[in-house]
Amino acid sequence: MTDYRTLRVALLGAGAVGSQVADLLLKHGDELADRAGAKLELAGIAVRNLDGKRDADLPRELFTTDAETLIVGSDIVIELMGGIEPARTQVLHAIASGADVVTANKALLATHGSEVFEAADQVGAEVYYEAAAAGAIPIIRPLRDSLAGDRVVRIMGIVNGTTNYILDRMDTEGADFADVLAQAQALGYAEADPTADVEGYDAAQKAAILASLAFHTTVPLDAVHREGITSVDAAMIESARHAGYVIKLLAVCERLTADDGSESISVRVYPALVERTHPLASVHGANNAVFVQAEAAGDLMFYGAGAGGVQTASAVLGDVVSAARRHIAGGVGVGESTRANLPAVPIGHVITRYQITLEVDDQPGVLATVAGILSEGRVSIATVEQTVIEADENTQTGGSARLVIGTHKAREQDLSETVERLAASGVVERVVSVLRVEGN
Amino acid sequence: MTDYRTLRVALLGAGAVGSQVADLLLKHGDELADRAGAKLELAGIAVRNLDGKRDADLPRELFTTDAETLIVGSDIVIELMGGIEPARTQVLHAIASGADVVTANKALLATHGSEVFEAADQVGAEVYYEAAAAGAIPIIRPLRDSLAGDRVVRIMGIVNGTTNYILDRMDTEGADFADVLAQAQALGYAEADPTADVEGYDAAQKAAILASLAFHTTVPLDAVHREGITSVDAAMIESARHAGYVIKLLAVCERLTADDGSESISVRVYPALVERTHPLASVHGANNAVFVQAEAAGDLMFYGAGAGGVQTASAVLGDVVSAARRHIAGGVGVGESTRANLPAVPIGHVITRYQITLEVDDQPGVLATVAGILSEGRVSIATVEQTVIEADENTQTGGSARLVIGTHKAREQDLSETVERLAASGVVERVVSVLRVEGN
């Protein structure tokens, strides 16, 4: 075997991903050395509790509760603790100690990314985070490097496996949200507290990371508009299917160009209607996919497992090898440019298509009233479908009708004000749902 | 605007891709400077003929026929001439002059890759070639970097747009190869001389590049088994459809592990049957996709436009920005490891599934004879379908029958020897087709 220089690797965290990373580092050491051009010595694994249960059989002597000491003298620090603290403190400590950092911590990057990247820039360290955006799918390098000479126009990502699993089962089985969530929890696809997934917090963190890279702009988490999937019910899914759509929780990152040529971006997470013929519609189960539209490259899609310990470990180890190669090459940081600094617009400025479902009085003139309100609100109707839901059997009037309206592109603020006016118009009994339609 | 250092960029070639690269470099200069951290000055464009027709309106004074002089003093040389010579000489000249090289030249890399990479290694230069493998699809960096800590098990790629366009139209229209090829030529989807595409030469070059990266092994072009699509006819497509398959020209790169644990690889290009539910089956038109299976990451797919001037230009410019960042960072080469050096096995060692279509005498005992020959040849039958094609109307015997046999996994050499014995058995009138089945 070639006589390689040894790099000292510190691992923080030994959960589902951390255990697999440690296992693969130990098992494939020789092969990784050949790839990296350096021997990767796992110096230790910092954990909170030495007696915790691990997913892999790891040498007891590697474990320590003293992350701070472990970090000192390490060339590469892998942070897989998750959460903001103490992850933030230890990552900054690692950077200050001269180590490169590999992390899968989307919460940390989405909230303290600027602080972390600036600290790294100052000392010439590098922060790798392929595992933070869409599990094992290589999306960071394509966005940062491969598309660096192009202009990304739009990203539409299915970036949360739990919600895709739930929506996919609701779609295939006609089941209701609560039932599928309970099953997903029983099967381990959803956490006991599913809030981060089903309310879109996890997807919003990933959207902030993807948008930052794609638009060379620091996107703070609070610039991301976020809606979850808890209000999606079986009737909405069925109605979507009827209209040729499937409902997906999408992270949409979009470049907007004003009439004067000035540019801004919109970053948003919400359940949206996607045409069944769109490549994203066939992303099933807990899989993830990121659909990228770029000016020159056209449409690209990246597909794979969005989560899972061993899958995510693959992305982490790819970063470890990259960090090792950089160490051996003696190079300073290649870094990302965030010099574009495009402003992020609020959700009200977003322009997209909508599907509005209303329950209205089944009376003559109601459709005219609804159409009039939409027109006044600058919302142009593309399709209308009216179905009677509980008409009086004798008169065929006096009951209710369901009105499904597909709009042309409209401004979100116009749309929401118009929906408010519809709700208050006297002829609308109930606004059943308002969903955005994404994908051209 | 920030005061950037200027990097001198030389462009060799101004065809479909070169014109777009020059156009984008000039048009998006400021934005690219922000991304790269350096001003990219297009110093000149070397062409054979100064008066050639260009796809973009480019300043006349940039053109020169003297590539050799243009290269000297350049920081980055973009080689888009195509072909082996003079591309090889100029690329080596650029490396010797201290430039980094960006190329989309798959023919050069597949045949003289080792020479080029070794020359670059010796002087610490870098060779970028994202555009050489699957057009605008970012696949090089994912394979080289993102999956560097994983073990790629198999790649199945649709890497030639022309043949995918032809096979897709044959599939959707039931048309014959020659007709669709003629139409494709009329529409500009296929060259006047379509040999490189339809005989699989182009795909074989890309397969060699992908396999080299995925398996960290130098794969010479002559280690790639290659078959084209000229023998695929409407009847084969129809028969594939009937069995739930679609025919795709696949580049298959596979890691093989022997019983003693020793590893080798197989790299092959041929028309194969793919189940219609497989993600690759829904890659339509001239699009490309690369399906990657890795031990830890699981299944990944990368999808996008496989060719086209502006799409490929996107990949080239991504490489230019990477090269510029490396220059600014002052780093030496990060390089690829080709240290695994796995041997490539001949096609006879490949193990896969097959669909054998035979015309046989429609006589009692024929199926037993055929089954016996298969069994002797260590080819295990998974499915059989027999249909009468021209039976004698009175006796229902004496005519011919069509036998479609799906096999379990078999060794190619066993299979082909068995097919030869079938052909010589006396009961088989004609071996209609033998197709591999890929995808689990």
Notes on the protein architecture:
2 copies of one chain form a homodimer. The N and C termini of chain A lie far apart (54 Å). In chain A, helix 1 crosses helix 13, helix 4 packs parallel to helix 5 and helix 14 packs antiparallel against helix 15. By secondary structure, chain A is of the alpha/beta class. Helix content of chain A is 36%, strand content 27%. The model of chain A has no long low-confidence stretch (mean pLDDT 90). Chain A folds into 3 domains: 151 residues, NAD(P)-binding Rossmann-like Domain (Rossmann fold); 166 residues, Dihydrodipicolinate Reductase, domain 2; 89 residues, Alpha-Beta Plaits (2-Layer Sandwich), CATH 3.30.70.260. Chains A and B meet through helix 2, helix 7, strand 12 and helix 13 of A and helix 2, helix 7, strand 12 and helix 13 of B. Strand 12 of chain A pairs antiparallel with strand 12 of chain B.
Main CATH class of the largest domain in chain A: Alpha Beta
Global structural class of chain A: alpha/beta
Largest sheet of chain A: 11 strands, mixed
Roughly what fraction of the amino acids of chain A lie in strands?
25-35%
| CATH-defined fold name of the largest domain in chain A | Dihydrodipicolinate Reductase, domain 2
Total helical segments of chain A: 15
Distance between the termini of chain A: 54 Å
Instruction: Give the beta-strand count of chain A.
Output: 17
Quaternary structure annotation: homodimer
- If interface size is counted as residues with C-beta under 8 Å from the partner's C-beta, which chains form the largest one? A-B, 64 and 64 residues
CATH superfamily label of the largest domain in chain A: Dihydrodipicolinate Reductase, domain 2
What portion of residues of chain A is helical? Answer: 25-40%
Average per-residue pLDDT of chain A, rounded, comes to 90
What is Rg of chain A? 25 Å
Number of domains of chain A: 3
Q: Which shape of chain A, going by the Cα principal axes?
A: elongated
* Uncertain stretches of 5 or more adjacent residues of chain A: none
The CATH architecture of the largest domain in chain A is: 2-Layer Sandwich
